[in-house]
Amino acid sequence: MFSFDLHENERLITRLRQSESLLFKPAVIVLVLLYVPLWFFIKYDLLGQFGWFLAVWVVAVLLYAANKYMLWLVTAYLITTKRVVAITYTNLLKKQTQEMMVSDIANIRVAHSGLFSTMLSFASVEIQSSAHDPLVFKNISKAGTIKDLLWHTKEKQHLYKPV
Q: pTM of the full predicted structure?
């Protein structure tokens, strides 16, 4: 989907994506936005007069669905042997990349936000350092495992650092 350049002697440990559960809400919205107008048009026999409007409506709703899916698909979080990277999109034309060196990690916090998050076991992982703003991996599955992986990567990097 996209490429990311690694530094010299750096290797990708894992690539993460937001939980698939986040697509549930847009899917329900799309189904309602498609079903209700169709039901209304059929019930009141308006398809002949306003069929063009319904066609435009369906295309607009499908574009909304494609946009939500693409935003979910291209947002990625990377953990390498040297860096932690968050690549987030607020829309398909606005990309933000944040990086933090693994050696700069001072604290890692896992935060569940609500019943839905707890039931479907996804959370946000906030990676803090003393020198940078926190870097947040939003709504990822198995957040506790990711936290442990980050601490292990930091410890491993510290052990093999030349003196």
A: 0.85
